[in-house]
Design brief:
Layout: E1 4-9, H1 13-22, E2 30-35, H2 38-50, E3 55-60, H3 69-77, E4 86-91, H4 96-104, E5 110-113, H5 118-136, H6 139-144, H7 151-166
Parallel strand pairs: 1-2, 1-3, 3-4, 4-5
């Protein structure tokens, strides 16, 4: 089973700690990193790329010092190493125009408003990671993710892949 990165970005340490706590059940299977700014997140990504650990999921706040979360998500969409990652905006401050900009630039897969429910955040992460794995893993690798992610969706994806192959 390949190791993948989940990156959480928020300039408030208490928020980051809460997100990390909510995702704790996934840390056995994923590298989970926190960053308190976009610049720090870029450093974490550079290290992950150097270690051959692809970014699978990013949960990012919008309003931060320096670069905004939405601008960062748009930037990630245009980089080869991160374009396939699932991108979640976790914020209480993004306006409609900024959110529409992120959606229209295909840089946002999900929006979570603060404050959030911890169980809901974990389930959204699992859903997004399941989508990422279905889109990016081979059949053999995908089967190994069934114990952690959404088994029904993975089985359905495998079934569709086999049906598509039988049409050839």
């Amino acid at each position: 089973m390949n190791k993948y990165l989940i990156l959480c970005v928020d300039d408030e340490r208490e928020v980051l700690d809460s997100v990390l706590n909510d995702l704790r059940a996934l840390e056995e299977y994923f590298v989970i990193e926190a960053a308190e700014s976009v610049d720090e997140a870029k450093e974490v990504l550079a290290d992950a790329i150097a270690d051959h650990t692809p970014l699978a999921l990013i949960l990012c706040d919008h309003i931060m010092p320096g670069e905004t979360g939405i601008d960062f998500l748009i930037e990630l969409k245009h980089q080869e190493e991160s374009c396939h990652a699932r991108k979640v905006l976790l914020t209480g401050q993004a306006g409609l125009e900024e959110t529409v900009q992120a959606v229209n630039n295909a840089s946002l897969d999900y929006y979570i408003a603060k404050p959030w429910n911890g169980d809901q955040l974990k389930q959204i992460a699992i859903d997004q990671l399941t989508s990422f794995m279905i889109d990016n893993e081979s059949e053999a690798e995908l089967i190994t993710w069934m114990q952690i992610l959404d088994t029904n969706r993975i089985m359905e994806a495998l079934s569709h892949r086999r049906l598509s192959l039988s049409d050839i």
